[in-house]
Amino acid sequence: MGSSIFGILAFLIVGYSVTSVRMITQGNEALVERLGRYDRKLKPGLNFIVPLMDRVVLKETLREQILDIEPQTAITRDNVALEADAVVYWRILDLERTYYEIEDVEKAIEELVTTTLRSEIGKMNLEDTFSSRDAINKALIEQLDEATDPWGVKIMRVELQEIKPPPEVIRSMQQQQAAEIQKKAAVTAAEGEKEAAVARAKGTVESIEQLASAFQKHGDSKAILQYLIASQYVEANQKLGESNNSKVLFMDPKMLTEGLVDLINSGDESGLHMNKGDDDDLPPPRERRSQRSGR
Fold first, then answer.
1. Checking CA distances to 256, which of 54, 70, 186, 276 falls within 20 to 30 Å?
2. Residues 71, 161: one domain?
3. What is the pTM of this model?
4. From residue 76, how far is each of 92, 208, 277 by CA, in Å?
5. Same-domain pairing of 180 and 207
């Protein structure tokens, strides 16, 4: 009889010990209610409760958690509908308030993020939403942190993941961007042509100055003019031959030769002031041409 009673007592003690021990791991907490009312928190480690009187109603982590918000439709200030989604990093600071102040804290945070995100996007034009991600994230975290403080929750950060306009708006933006690129390219090309024209003009001025200096230093201006005219003539014929279009030129060699001689002699007349001497005895260009024709 005594052994039976001892066995029953031992069984009760073991059962009581097993049901009264609660192990809480690091980073977690638990809430205990006694007879239906909040009693205390269980900290990480070994904890004991009173069976039949105490009940663990919640065991939750205090580590940072991630809440991914599904894409939500929002309308910008210029009446463009787009989709935006975000991710929220949050953690529980006071497990008691989180459990007793709000029914479903994750659902509440999700709804709060959706409402705040739509409100912030509605204050901006479409183009501003792409360049104002940091401003939107900052506004979200400020408003969410203030709203969730009574729940014992801390919003660590909010990241706006994607802003997706409708396909037709994306096409319009791409066309606008292409037009801007073409405009910049045209402006760059015009500036390049302007610089090239200025460079050519400077080169022409320098060439004229060099020719004038050569005429002053050398007495034989006729030879210089002949060389320049011949060079220009050869260069012009070379460019004409490089063209892809077929060309047929009918020219009198005699007239061409006389024209070159007249052009050279005209250059000689412009340099008479610098080269007076032996050239004073030469007849005028027209008389010389008539003399050659008479021959």
1. 276
2. yes
3. 0.55
4. 33, 64, 89
5. yes
Looking at residue 101, its amino acid is E
Give the separation between CA 161 and CA 111, rounded to whole angstroms.
Answer: 17
Distance CA 162, CA 72 (A): 10
Domain around 119: 65-165
Residue for token pair 């663990």? 56
| Residue located via tokens 């490089």 | 242
Are 155 and 138 spatial neighbours (Cβ–Cβ below 8 Å)? no
Q: Is 24 found in the same domain as 114? A: no
Q: Distance between CA 31 and CA 99 in Å, rounded?
A: 9
What is the distance between the alpha carbons of residues 264 and 225, in angstroms, rounded to a whole number?
Answer: 6
Residues with Cβ within 8 Å of residue 270, at least 6 apart in sequence: none
Neighbour tally for 104: CB within 10 Å: 9
Strands 81-92 vs 28-34: parallel, antiparallel or unpaired? unpaired
Instruction: Note the pLDDT tens digit of each residue in 192-238.
Output: 888 888 887 777 777 777 766 766 666 556 666 666 666 666 677 66
pLDDT value for 233: 67
- Number of structural domains (the chain) is 4
